[in-house]
Design a protein that fits this description.
The chain is of the alpha+beta class. The protein folds into three domains: 194 residues, Beta-Lactamase (2-Layer Sandwich); 187 residues, Hypothetical protein af1432; 102 residues, no CATH class. It is built from 19 helices and eleven strands. Strands 1, 2, 3, 4, 5, 6 and 7 form a seven-stranded antiparallel beta sheet that branches. A two-stranded antiparallel ribbon has the order 8-9. Helix 6 packs antiparallel against helix 7.
Length: 537
């Protein structure tokens, strides 16, 4: 006969505790703490020595939490120690039928509570697993109470199993059927709380996956920025964590909740979503003359025509016996040499760089004044106005109009994100994401914000975006920069009011730049950095 347990003696206090637990469960936002609380409270009702909480999916029951007071076992939940046992299969692999041999899977399948007074005399279920556990540990598993956790739809989302109820003297007794209703009430509350938490986590995973899908699509849209949208969140998270860890300086009092960190993470993933509207011929412009194709090929053809014309002119002069042979050959060789030099110069200029000097722009104009005849015989300038304009780009490969198109992606990003019905904890995603091209001196875009107008996360986004771009090895117009080169440029940017000085100092002092580099850059980029020079005024 079942003996009254310690916790069942005062049903009034248990009921009051159930109310308090229900309120606590509905408020708990941490999944591990939620599951832990469910098991601990259920153990307390029966003064049970041990217990396990399983989570159910379509195929199995996985061990989420295990506790045993006698053996000092605490696994799963907030302990950080995973339960080492494999999931219980809902389908018997030998027969392909539902697994009713195991009491936990039976309860998950049927949704019925099972009270077993003694596992060693029980005939309806297979307790060989518990018996083997007892042999290894010297424990004695006796009474079992296995309860389904059903959500508001009546679907089983988990299973709660308690082991060895104890009386007031801590003797192992049966689980009192009279108190089962209390455990079922707790299980019902727990199931709803657990189901709500799983639904929220499922929605969060869906949102994360959707956001990452968009970011990956943007990266794949341009082979020259592949991985940018994936690497910026890594940097933003690292900088935010460093700011939170600071114990002195301007970030000593700075801290972020888990929701706020997630908000920054989400903004970093979405910071370039406006590029989905940017034309490929602008995003992928790897040379100055590139549009749908690289027009340098057309220019090379013209140089070939110039060579042909020079040779024809030589032959005509030879037939007309004009001048001496040595003079004619010298003139031809000089002309061909000049054509080769001009071709090499234009080809080199077509590749974007950090700076194009005035004398080179003048030479481009001189080359353009030459004449050539196309296949129709029409006489034309060697370079069109548009070709001269693009070849004269001083930095990179984009002209002013194309840079405006690129810049507009930030405006589109903000417009897109502001149309989304973000929940309260993600309301600032548009602000954070839209701030990565603003400057501390107000000369950035699209809003021309100054430092005091921007939140710290928005300023973090700018540093993450710039550092990734400088160190990236997949840009068409420049070689991958070393750490020292990249940080030298960033130091100049912070001195010119481009990026936040406090954050740049933290970025260097906390070693964020180095940790990121060791994980994501090529070995040849990891050169020595003079941090004292970077941190000097």
């Amino acid at each position: 006969m079942a003996t009254t347990t310690a916790q069942a003696t005062d049903q009034g206090s248990v009921l009051r505790r159930l109310i308090d637990v229900g309120i606590a469960l509905s408020a708990e936002r941490n999944h591990d703490r939620l599951m832990e609380r469910i098991l601990v409270e259920a153990k307390a009702i029966y003064n049970a020595d041990g217990g396990t909480l399983y989570l159910k999916d379509d195929q199995s029951l996985s061990f989420a939490i295990m506790r045993n007071d006698t053996l000092g076992i605490a696994m799963g939940g907030t302990t950080g120690d995973k339960v080492p046992f494999p999931p219980l299969q809902m389908i018997d692999p030998a027969t392909g039928e539902p697994n009713h041999h195991n009491v936990a899977t039976h309860v998950a399948i049927t949704g019925t509570l099972i009270n077993v007074p003694d596992a060693y005399t029980e005939q309806g279920f297979d307790f060989s697993g518990a018996k083997n556990f007892d042999k290894r540990t010297g424990y004695r598993s006796k009474s079992f109470l296995t309860v389904p956790l059903k959500n508001y739809e009546g679907l089983v989302v988990g299973v709660l199993q308690l082991i060895n109820a104890r009386d007031t003297a801590n003797n192992v007794v049966d689980f009192d059927p009279a108190t089962q209703s209390l455990v079922e009430a707790l299980s019902s509350q727990a199931a709803v709380a657990l189901d709500n938490r799983q639904l929220l986590e499922g929605q969060k995973k869906l949102l994360d996956s959707f956001v990452q899908l968009i970011a990956t699509a943007i990266d794949r849209k341009s082979p020259y920025t592949s991985g940018h949208c994936q690497r910026v969140p890594v940097l933003a998270d690292m900088i935010a964590d460093a700011a939170c860890s600071a114990t002195e300086g301007p970030f000593a009092d700075f801290d972020l909740t888990e929701d706020e960190k997630y908000e920054i993470h989400m903004a970093a993933w979405m910071h370039d979503c406006g590029k989905v509207t940017t034309p490929e011929y602008v995003m992928d412009k790897s040379t100055k003359l590139e549009t749908i194709y690289d027009r340098i090929e057309t220019v090379r053809t013209r140089f070939t025509v110039l060579q042909r014309d020079a040779e024809i002119d030589y032959l005509k002069k030879t037939l007309a016996n004009q001048g001496s042979e040595d003079e004619r050959k010298a003139a031809l060789e000089a002309r061909l040499k000049q054509i080769d030099a001009d071709r090499a110069f234009i080809e080199a200029t077509n590749v974007g760089g950090e700076f194009l000097a005035d004398e080179k722009i003048e030479r481009i104009k001189q080359v353009s004044t030459q004449r050539w005849r196309d296949w129709t015989g029409a006489d034309k300038p060697f370079l069109s106005e548009n070709e001269v304009y693009n070849l004269s780009i001083r930095k990179g490969t984009l002209n002013n109009e194309e840079r405006k198109i690129i810049s507009d992606h930030v405006v589109v990003t903000i417009e897109m994100l502001e149309q989304l019905p973000f929940p309260r904890n993600l309301k600032r995603v548009p602000e954070f994401a839209g701030g990565h091209h603003e400057r501390m001196d107000g000369k950035g875009y699209p809003k021309g914000l100054k430092r005091d107008d921007m939140s710290i996360p928005a300023r973090i986004m700018a540093i993450a975006d710039i550092y990734e771009a400088l160190t990236a090895a997949d840009r068409p117009y420049k070689k991958a920069m070393t750490l020292s080169q990249s940080l030298k440029i960033m130091k100049k940017m912070q001195s010119e009011g481009h990026i936040d000085s406090d954050l740049f100092k933290l970025f260097v002092e906390a070693g964020v730049y180095r940790r990121y580099a060791e994980a994501h850059l090529k070995p040849e980029q990891l050169d020595q950095v003079d941090e004292r020079e970077l941190l000097s005024a």
